[in-house]
Amino acid sequence: MKFRIFTAISIFIMIVIFVHSAMPAEMSSIESSVFERFVASILGVAPESVTFAVRKCAHFTEYLVLGLFMMLAAVNEKRGYSFITGLITWVIGTAYAISDEVHQLFVPGRSCELRDMCIDAAGIFCGVMIIAGVRHLRTLKREGA
After folding, report:
1. Burial bucket for residue 22 (CB in 10 Å: 0-12, 13-18, 19+)
2. What pLDDT shows up at residue 67?
3. Cβ-contact 54, 35 below 8 angstroms
4. Is the CA virtual torsion 10, 13, 17, 23 positive or negative?
5. What pLDDT band is residue 116 in, cutting at 50, 70 and 90?
6. Pairwise CA distance, residues 69 & 12, whole Å
7. d(Cα 61, Cα 51) in Å, to the nearest integer?
8. Helices marked H in 22-144 — which ranges?
9. In the prediction, which pLDDT does 81 show?
10. Percent above pLDDT 90 for the chain
11. Which residues contact 31 (CB under 8 A, 6 or more apart)?
């Protein structure tokens, strides 16, 4: 049951990512500007000075969350964690990130960026590693180590 829930959440996140990537650059900028103004107000700087950081953090965060839920689905399907499970999860998530960047080539004003693919892959990796680390700590705790 957990496998199905985590898989459904992963697919939902992928759909949200796809929909955001399908937004023309102008719409995406309007959406991002809300967060840019918020972060800038906290830091006491001009909104345009945080644009790059906010956009790249958004890439990392959305793929981190995707990596978390993909890994939760994987470990619940297999009833455990192995290096191969983590590697396969990372490869699938990274392949999705690459396909998402390529998809943006066909969206007005958007582009396909190698840097964004790397940020996305790092987000997936961190999500996988967080779940792997938590599961490892739980195993150690159960074994009394």
Report:
1. middle
2. 98
3. yes
4. positive
5. very high
6. 10
7. 15
8. 25-43, 51-78, 83-103, 114-143
9. 72
10. 79
11. 20, 23
